Amino acid sequence: MAAKTRQENSYKMKTLRFVAAEAFISKQEYAKLSIRNIAHNLYPLLLKACFLNEKEEIITILVENWPLSDFNFSKLLGKTVDCPEDISHWSCQRCLTACLRGLKNYVLNCSPTYSKRLKVVDLTGIRDVQFQSCKCKKTLGRWGRTQLISEICFELLIEMQKSDFNPSIFDVDVDVKCNLFVTEKIYELVVQALLMRCHCPLKIRCVDFRADSLVLRKLFYILRLAEPSSIHKLEIVHNVRLEIYHLEVLFNNITFTQLSSLTLPASTFNVTNYTAEDEAILCTIGEKLSNMVHLTELCLSFSTLTGRLRKLLSPLKTPLKVLELANCSLNQLDMAYLANSLHAEYLEQLDLSGHNIAEVFPSTFFKLLSKASKTLQVLILEECDIGDMNVHVLEMGIVHCLKLKELKFLGNPSTAITLRRLFRVLANLPRLRYIEFPVPKDCYPPDVSYPLDEASLVKYDHQKYETIKQTLCRILRQVAREDILVATPLFGSYDSAIEETGMELGTCLLTSFKDALQSFTASLQKL
């Protein structure tokens, strides 16, 4: 009965045109033969209907014969007049593969050149989510899409070497905008695709670039190939051993004129033992960042920046909207700078995890939240030692953040009493939609110590946790705030990139650990 009701609601949302499109593709063999006779303005409608119903063969034929100049995933699969359902988060492996294979066929198709109008394919709007709504439940993530589009470009070049191919292929020129995610495993493939871009009708245009598990020589080389002047977001993460000296070399040799977001790997900065020369390099990097006039997002988590935040951020000409400083060992000087800086009044997302904000700098933290209250949407305070004795600092600071949408404070020693107090405050924030809260301290053994290690993290009273969670949800329901989703992801939020390449990352980390052990053993033997 419930399924029937959902189906009826679904039909009410769709227009007759869309229902007719679904009926058309339901007869697959007939649809495959008739697509070329369909009016051009119906192609977007049919494509979305095919994605919803996972008609891969028809998707390939649709793209192969695409009659329009633009192919934008977020527009085609997002909310439309005919079908309000947004399926741009459907990174369905079967449908996306069919779509990209169709793109290759589009180039090789021997129809007259004048009929080929396609100029831009934009894949950047595809969103990767934890739970796929498609029937196959298989996802083609950012890394997989990078691999597939590189393979298709390479295969296309091989096809063009055949003596019987149509010379009109040389007149086809399609920019494929995409977000690249490169690791050691697909490095050579992506490099080949980028090197041969000038000869390939499908030209990869990188908008966002993510690198993991690459040595620096390869990282710098592929960044040059990826046209850095057009990159908007650069993420260098995890198993990339980038230090301050390497970052200076990178910025001195490669210019990122359009960069709006920068993420650097752990320990890029470690000011603990900086020399005068290192301090000068730090200032140089601050100046280089200031030349990136579009930069509004900076993620420096797990770098030691004690007392040096001003040197990095004060040269910036554009206020930051996203700032991640988790586990950066900030001190009073850093917090005072941040609370009084231009950035504070523009922050939309702030991560101060790993800092004892309520005990060490309560007044500057309160001032920072007061300054950011008109813009702040996401606040992350994981492992900040927020408990019964100091939760009032967070309460007083957050009560004025009326635009806050998400609060994440996992790993804090908060009891059920603390959480109830805090939830009563949070229930009054009109735009709040998501809360990540820790397993209450009451649910753990009395001798547990914070921060929790992985072994201790999972050893809690599950029944007691569920009872407390129900109480917290009841507090929200009493003021009609059922729209707020609450969760306790023990090992952090879902990361599609880690999910997709976790095995390769794990192998690289084990190799690094083995190399470190061998180096340590060799040093001992010399002694």
From TrEMBL:
Superkingdom field: Eukaryota
Q: Which residues form a coiled coil?
A: none
Does the record carry Cytoplasm as a key word?
Answer: no
Identify the GO cellular component terms for this protein. cytoplasm
Q: What keywords tag this UniProt record?
A: Leucine-rich repeat, Repeat
InterPro entries, per the entry: LRR_dom_sf, LRRC14/PRAME
* Matching Gene3D superfamilies: Ribonuclease Inhibitor (3.80.10.10)
Sequence similarity: Belongs to the PRAME family. LRRC14 subfamily.
UniProt-recorded name of the protein:
Leucine-rich repeat-containing protein 14B
